[in-house]
Amino acid sequence: MNPTMTKKLLLTLLAWGIALIVFFPIFWMVLTGFKTEGEAVATPPSLFFEPTLAGYHEVMARADYLKFALNSIVISFGSTLLALIVAIPSAYSMAFLPTKRTRGTLLWMLSTKMLPPVGVLMPVYLLFRDMGLLDSQLGLTIVYMLMNLPIVVWMLYTFFKDIPKDILEAGRMDGAGTLQEVLYLLLPLTLPGIASTGLLSVILSWNEAFWSLNLTTSDAAPLTAFIASFSSPEGLFWAKLSAASTLAIAPILIFGWLTQKQMVRGLTFGAVK
Amino acid sequence: MPSKVSAPASGERRHRRSLAGHIERVLPRLVVAPSLGVALFFVYGYMLWTFLLSLTNSRMLPQYDFVGFAQYARLFANERWHVAATNLVVFGGLFIVSCLVIGLLLAIFLDQRIRQEGALRTIYLYPMALSLIVTGVVWRWLLNPGLGIQAMVRGWGFEDFTFNWLVDSDMAIYTLVIAAVWQASGFVMALFLAGLRSIDDSLFQAAALDGASLPRIYTRIVLPSLRPVVFSSVMILAHIAIKSFDLVMALTGGGPGYATDLPATFMYAHTFTRGQIGLGSASAIMMLCGVLAILVPYLYSELRGQRHG
C-alpha cells in the first residue's frame, strides 16, 4: 500500500471513530430501552444482553404515546405551516423590494431570538389563561409559530436573495402579477430552501420543551412533556426513561436520515447549500 | 448587476398613478408589518410588562403596588443570583469557545476529502436535532458516577478512576458544558465546512507555490475568510446558551443545591415556585440588559461591516 492510501485509510478510520463517539450516547440510550430495569443499572454496563420490549410495554401502558405523538405532529407541522404563510410575503418584499430599513428590520426581528423566553413567560401565561388557550393545541401552535418566525423569515430571505432578479422581471414582462410571480416562479425555484426552512421549524418545534411544559398539562402535551413525565418523579427507572426518550426522538432521527440533505441545510440555517 | 436591469421597469411603474400602482408600492411594507409586529410585540411588549412587574411588590400574583427599584436591590443582595450570573458567564464562555475550536478542527479534518463525507456530516450533526430534554436524560445517565462513564472505566479495571462532576457542586457546571458542546459542535463543524468549501482553491495553490506551510495557510488565509461564519456561529451559539434552561432542568435541575443555577432557572424558580414575581421579573430584566449590552454592539458592528465590505 502506498503512503497516500495509508493516510486516507487512517483518516477514514479516525473519522468513523469520532462518529462513533458522537453517536454513542444516542446508541446507548436506544440500547438501554431494550433492557430490563436490572440490566440497565448493572455495573459494569453490559453490551450483550437479551433484548426485551418490557420497557416499551410499560411506557405504553402508563401513558398514551400516540396521543402525545399526535399532539407533537399537529403542533409542529401546524406552526410551521402558519409561520411559512406569514413569512413568505415578508421575505419576498425584503429580498426583492428592499428599503433603507430592511437590514434594521431583520436585525430587530432576530434580536428577539436572543432574549430568554422565561422573560415573557409570565405575561403569555396570564394571557393564555384569560383566553382559555392553556393546554390547547391551538395555543401551543401559535406560540411555536411566533417563536420560530424570526428564523423562518431570515432563512427565507437568504434563499430568496439568491434568486436573480432578472428571472422575476422576465415574468413581469410577460404580464405576470405579483401573485403569479410568487406562485409560479419564486416558490418553485426556492422550493428546496423552503423545504429546509420548514424542516428546521418542524425540528425546533418538535424539540421545544420550555413552553410545552409550562403551557400544557395533559390534553395538548407533546412528546417533550411525555419524556419529562417519565423523568421527574422516577428518574431512576432508566430502561423506561430510555424507551420513552427513544420513542420521542425516533421520528426525527429516521425522518432526518431520509431527508439528509434538507436536514443538514435546515439545521445549519441554510449555510450548507 | 440586477439593479441596473430593474431600473427601467421600476421607473415605468412609478409613472402609473393608478390605485393598483399605489397598492403595489405600499404592499411590501404591509406584508412585512405582521412579522415584525408580532415579533416585537410579543417579545419587547411583554418585556415591558415584565419590567412593570419588576417595579412592584408582586408575590404569588401580579399586582401593581409600585415600590421603585427595591426588587433590584434585593436581587443584588441575593447570593443565589450571584451564583447564577457567574454560572452563565462561565457556561456561555466555555461553551462558545469549545464549540468553535472543536467545530473548526472537525471541519478542517472532514475537509481532507474523506469518503462518505455526507453520512459522517449527518452523524456529527445528529445531536443538534435532539431535544435538550433528551440530551439531558442521556448525559445524566452517562455522567452518573454509579452507572455511566465512571462505572464503565472502573469495570475495565481502573478502580481509582473518578469522574463524579455531576454530584460535585464545584464541577457540576462543567457537566452542562460537556453536554451542550456535544450537542452543538457538529453544527459548528457543518458551518465551518461550508465556509472552507467556499474558499477559492486557487488561493491555496498560490500560497503553496509561494512556499507557505500548511499551518501558515490556515492562519493567514483560511481563518480570516471564515470571519462571517464565526459571526453567525457565535450568534446562534449565544442563543443556545441563553436558552439552556431546558438542559439545566433535565440534566442537573439546577443542583447540587443551586450550584448550576442559571439566570433563567433562577427567574423560573422565583416567579413560579417561590411566589416572588417581583424579584423574578427584576432578574428577567437584568438578563435582558446583559444580553443587549453584549450582543447589540457586536451585531451592529458586524452588520455595518458587511454593508460596507
From TrEMBL, chain A:
Subcellular location: Cell membrane
Family to which this protein belongs: Belongs to the binding-protein-dependent transport system permease family. MalFG subfamily.
Origin organism lineage: Bacteria, Pseudomonadati, Pseudomonadota, Gammaproteobacteria, Oceanospirillales
Pfam families: BPD_transp_1 (PF00528)
Name used for this protein in its record: Mannitol ABC transporter membrane protein / sorbitol ABC transporter membrane protein
Keywords attached to this entry: Cell membrane, Membrane, Transmembrane, Transmembrane helix, Transport
TM ranges: 9-31, 68-94, 106-128, 140-160, 181-206, 237-258
Domain named ABC transmembrane type-1: residues: 69-259
Membrane topology: Multi-pass membrane protein
BP-aspect Gene Ontology terms: transmembrane transport
Keyword Coiled coil: no
Entry annotated with the keyword Transport: yes
CDD domains on file: TM_PBP2 (cd06261)
A GO cellular-component term linked to this record: plasma membrane
